[in-house]
Write a structure and sequence with these properties.
Blueprint: H1 41-68, H2 73-81, H3 87-97, H4 105-117, E1 123-124, E2 130-131, H5 132-167, H6 176-185, H7 188-202, H8 222-258, H9 262-269, H10 274-286, H11 288-297, H12 301-312, H13 317-326, H14 330-358, H15 360-363
Antiparallel strand pairs: 1-2
Helix pairs in contact: 1-14, 5-8, 5-14, 6-8, 7-8, 7-12, 8-10, 9-10, 11-14, 12-13, 13-14
Length: about 375
């Protein structure tokens, strides 16, 4: 009788790969390698090349659009001066702003790129001939501190709250979805005016506007920081409440979709703790579209703050853009749009990298 040469089913052959938990296959909990996450260099490189092309296209459009409009910054400045400037002064201004009609358009385009590579964004007429970079640098921190902080807070609160509501579907927390959605339909400026009337005029809890009181010297001291925080509280609360509904609804709907997946059912059947299933499996998959939406929402920071900064008289970049538009200050407009485009591109690159790390299916493009 011949001996049975087949290996026992319970023993693994030498050198064979370790068995993989079927509940982890195809989910974001899967790791590219045991104990180490593979960096998706090919995916990152491809996206970076795409964004480089996008940046070139945006900068090119940013150059040509103002020159296609009727008039320019020098014409607007000459109109405000009511003919008090001589033709020689007008020619000097055109040379300063790169708008000399005797220079070919392609040469102006190359000169514009040369200025950008040197970090020179031009001179702003509406700010008293100050460099555009200085004008933007003075206003940008206020916008980042106000709207950037409010956007991050609303994203975190809305995502966590939406995940919990989706996990406990049919519970009492479901009432928060229509409430936050309704508040999200209210315009920013209208909600801001209501809050000013209620919390500032009636109750006197917060200042009605501005970044700090008149007479306070800016600096890293307790008085100035306290003024900034108190004046920013009401705009931040307004932005968070107005934008919370979208994050809650989006995360809740994605959670409802993810909870019907087989790997969630298997994970619960294996007796895993509900908290682990919620945050490591369900929420980790459901949050992926939220990350992309968060990156895209950064592009609306300036557009969304123009009205807010008008309501609260806040000295941010949105109010600066409005003043540049009214004055036809194309150099300042181009500088603000350039900063906006670069910020959105960088935010999307970071979102793509985070997406690739969280979702292994994206990393398969490297194979």
């Amino acid at each position: 009788m011949s001996a049975d040469t087949s290996a026992p089913a319970t023993e693994a052959s030498p050198g064979a790969p370790e068995p993989v938990d079927p509940t982890l296959v195809g989910t974001t909990a899967t790791r590219a390698e045991r104990g180490r996450m593979r960096v998706p260099w090919r995916f990152i490189g491809g996206r970076a090349a795409f964004y480089v092309f996008t940046a070139w296209a945006a900068i090119t459009i940013n150059f040509f659009i103002p020159r296609l409009m009727k008039g320019d910054a020098v014409d607007a400045y000459m109109a405000r001066s009511q003919g008090q400037l001589t033709p020689d002064a007008e020619k000097a201004l055109r040379l300063m702003f790169g708008l000399d009609h005797s220079v070919p358009l392609w040469q102006q385009y190359l000169d514009y790129w040369g200025m950008l590579l040197r970090g020179d964004l031009g001179v702003s007429i509406s700010t008293g001939m100050a460099p555009v970079g200085d004008a933007i640098a003075a206003a940008l921190p206020w916008t980042l501190g106000l709207v950037g902080f409010a956007t991050i807070v609303s994203f975190l609160i809305g995502t966590v709250l939406g995940a919990v509501i989706g996990w406990r579907r049919g519970g009492r927390l479901d009432v928060l979805v229509p409430v936050t959605t309704f508040l999200g339909t209210v315009p920013y400026f209208w909600l801001g005016l209501i809050f000013i009337a209620l919390f500032s005029t009636l109750l006197g809890w917060f200042p009605a506007g501005h970044a700090y009181e008149v007479g306070v010297d800016p600096g890293w001291n307790a008085e100035f920081i306290g003024q900034v925080l108190s004046h920013a509280a009401l705009p931040v609360i307004t932005i968070v409440i107005a934008s919370l509904g979208g994050w809650v609804l989006g995360m809740r709907n994605m959670m409802l979709t993810v909870l019907d997946e087989d790997y969630i059912t298997v994970a619960q059947a294996k007796g895993m703790p509900n908290r682990r299933v919620l945050w490591r499996y369900a929420a980790r998959n459901a949050v992926l579209p939220q990350i992309q939406s968060f990156a895209l929402s950064l592009g609306f920071i300036v557009g969304g703050t123009i009205v807010m900064e008008m309501v609260f008289s806040y000295p941010g970049i949105g109010l600066l853009l409005l003043g540049a538009t009214n004055a036809k200050d194309y150099a300042l407009m181009q500088g603000i749009f350039l900063v906006l485009v670069m910020a959105v591109l960088v935010a999307n690159i970071i979102a793509d990298i985070a997406y690739a790390i969280l979702d292994p299916r994206t990393r398969q493009t490297e194979a």
